[in-house]
Design brief:
Layout: H1 2-10, H2 17-29, H3 34-42, H4 50-62, E1 66-69, E2 77-80, E3 86-90, E4 96-99, H5 103-114, E5 124-127, H6 130-137
Helix pairs in contact: 3-4
Bound molecules: zinc ion (2 copies).
């Protein structure tokens, strides 16, 4: 709890109970859509609106405290900003997980080959998670 407070402060974000709760939700679930966050927060803040959650996430994204994760065919999810990593998405149970790999190598190669100035480097791989593979072959 105190850590999350310090974390928000270090990004020069205004501290509110709702923001602390958003950080807690993201820290424990990893990747959440605005709607997921809203549902999670409703338990603690019955009067919170979806617009408030949007506003808070936007403010946090502006300060690079959270980042958007774009996933094909799913609503955007948000996560606390961490070192570059790729994502794997299960097409069956829809879970999203971090994969810590050196995305920089791929990014450098893309820059070299395309000569583009890249501003987003989301790497999302889709497939079946180990649990769903087992379930499908059972
Ligand atoms: Zn799965
Ligand atoms: Zn992630």
């Amino acid at each position: 709890m105190k850590d999350n407070l310090e974390l928000l402060k270090s990004y020069q974000l205004k501290i509110t109970p709702q923001r602390i709760a958003i950080v807690e939700e993201l820290a424990s679930h990893g990747h959440l859509s605005i709607e997921d966050l809203y549902q999670g927060l409703l338990e603690r803040f019955p009067t919170i609106s979806l617009a408030t959650v949007y506003k808070n996430i936007n403010a946090m994204e502006e300060k690079a405290f959270v980042q958007e994760v774009k996933i094909p065919e799913q609503k955007s999810k948000y996560e606390l900003t961490k070192a570059n990593h790729a994502h794997v998405v299960c097409q069956e149970c829809k879970k999203v997980e971090d994969v810590v790999v050196s995305t920089k190598v791929i990014l450098d190669e893309v820059k070299d080959v395309s000569h583009y100035q890249i501003d987003r480097d989301d790497l999302v791989f889709t497939g079946l998670c180990p649990e769903c593979v087992v379930r499908q072959s059972a």
